Amino acid sequence: MSERLRYGVVCINKPPGPSSHEVSAFVKKLLRVERTGHTGTLDQNVSGVLVVLINESRKSATYLMQSRKTYVCVMRTAQAVSKSDLEDAFQHFRGPIFQKPPEASAVRRVLRVRRIHSLQLLEMEGKSVLFQCECDAGTYIRKLVYDIGEILGMETEMKELRRIEAAGLSESRGITLQQLADYYWLATEKGRPKHLESALIPIEEVIEKALKKVVVTDEALSSISHGVPPRVSQIVEMPDRIHVGETLSGFTLKGELAFILQATLSEKEILELHEKEHDTEFARVVRVVHAF
Fold first, then answer.
1. 76 closest CA partner among 176, 164, 150, 149
2. pLDDT digit string (tens) for 232-264?
């Protein structure tokens, strides 16, 4: 339990109303931990998956924020639209798109590219359209709805938005703040930690879905924790494909997340050096998560 309260995450089912920062603060207070953070802001009126990072797991926030997000949205059109016209409009937005953040956003308003990995029509009723969208981090669904209206030649409005997946965690893993409070009470007052342990997800389970995994020997951990780059001879396990500059997660033999790496060699170069028994660094340490 103590390890999960230090290196765990909680998948909160955020209701409309509180901000992401407020929800993160609630989790901090409920669990009586020192620090919390989250993996991507949800607007106050948006509900759904908010992944809250506890204590040391906050060190991986930057990398988890870059993961894909999935939303379901209710869009209201000015006039009734046929299914075929709507599908034709959706086709314009599958793949890479240009977006400029709206005026009310907290980021600089510059044109940027985001990829829509999936855009699926779920249901239509009158002027209401329900669709699901899987997209890159930083995609503005409200702006997407507006742009769909531009293609349709009419005004469109986002009436409701819910995030159903973030950082590889779906809404099926989500719990409410009230449930979290109940689980903590059961664990601390009644000696029944089962529900709280289930709610506290190890950071390793989450990071593996976001970054490729490299396992190193135990003898490498101490030097790596002090910023010394890992060497080819210290690799125990690595992914089939590595690109130079790619961000990787570094694991111990026990399956613990220890650090975040940036590859300086490809997997082909690593294998060639290993066969020739030439030992050199294959990545640089960009973040120590768990020091040994």
1. 149
2. 999 999 999 999 999 999 999 999 999 999 999
Pick the CATH number of 2-65+169-205 from 3.40.390.30, 1.10.287.1080, 3.30.2350.10, 3.40.50.300: 3.30.2350.10
Cβ atoms < 10 Å from Cβ of 9: 31
Instruction: Specify the pTM.
Output: 0.90
Active site residues: 43
